[in-house]
Amino acid sequence: MTTPDNHQEKVIHIQATWGARCNKLLIMSSVADPSIGSIALPVEEGRKSLWNKTREAFRYIYDHHLEEYDWFFKADDDTYVVVENLRYFLYPYSPQLPIYFGSKFRYPEYVKQGYFSGGAGYVLSREAVRRFNEQALGDVQHCSAAYDTEDLEMGKCMESVNVTAGDSRDSLGRKRFLPMEPVFHLTSSVTEDPDFWYNQYSYYEPFYAE
């Protein structure tokens, strides 16, 4: 997910690093740029359009690539992914399971099972993408296009079609998906402050290394 202003500033670096290790990298923008091969989605740019942009991106995936791949990872243009680790994590799970993974936040008044931070990226199984397109997008009551909080809305849509928000932590309880830069997650004055917003919204208790 990117914008025209970031095509040469950020996208080219994704293509040269972790993006090159994906089976297929789709650059979702609002402009078709031949220099990076971006896809022009029928949306306006801006934060208020991010949710509809995400909806259109998954609609494009469903229409063109659903049966070609097992997992579909949504990332912004400031996200970095260790693709080999992502493959290793996903290996035990069948793409036929209605499940998705990411950095889980909690908002029980809105999404009981939790939802995943857009900043850390989240990965949907093939079945999750199928249900999102075939069931959720047509349900304006539970999956409306009228809102602008992308990650929270995705969580609401997934819950409405019984797609499980999976646990992506490792066997020691450490998080695999991180929504901020690494130094943030290593700063004890932040990670151990119960009043800090990240700890308040985190679905799981912070992990403290001994």
Automatic annotation (TrEMBL):
Q: Which family is annotated?
A: Belongs to the glycosyltransferase 31 family. Beta3-Gal-T subfamily.
Q: How does it assemble?
A: Homodimer; disulfide-linked.
Function in brief: Glycosyltransferase that generates the core 1 O-glycan Gal-beta1-3GalNAc-alpha1-Ser/Thr (T antigen), which is a precursor for many extended O-glycans in glycoproteins.
Where does this protein chiefly localize?
A: membrane
Q: Domain Fringe-like glycosyltransferase spans what residues?
A: 2-163
Quote the EC number: 2.4.1.122
Q: Which cofactor does it need?
A: Mn(2+)
Q: Which GO terms describe its cellular component?
A: membrane
**Which superkingdom does the taxonomy of this entry point to?**
Eukaryota
Q: Name one GO molecular function term.
A: nucleotide binding
Protein name per its UniProtKB record: Glycoprotein-N-acetylgalactosamine 3-beta-galactosyltransferase 1
Q: Where in the cell is it found?
A: Membrane
